[in-house]
Amino acid sequence: MYTASAQWTDPGADGENAAWSRQSIDRLREAHHGGAYVNYVQDEFQGGTAELYGNDRYRRLADVKRRYDPLNMFHHNQNISPAAND
Q1: Which residues of the chain have pLDDT under 50?
Q2: What is the spatial distance between Cα 36 and Cα 24, in angstroms, rounded to a whole number?
Q3: Torsion sign, CA atoms 29, 81, 75, 56
Q4: What's the whole-model pTM score?
């Protein structure tokens, strides 16, 4: 498991520092791809929630979601849609 944490006090450096943080994660992702711990994900991945779990696991989770939460009441954070297999 890895994480990149960037903090700074100069608001004028926001763009440069945020870019550095994102580039660091991109470099790590290229070397070690395998999903993410969903509670650590603060920004939606471009690939969406399915990328976090992988397609097979995401489909199984969507089946559970369809059975226990068909109205998608628990849709916050990295949502798994009950309609994912449709």
Answers
A1: 86
A2: 15
A3: negative
A4: 0.53
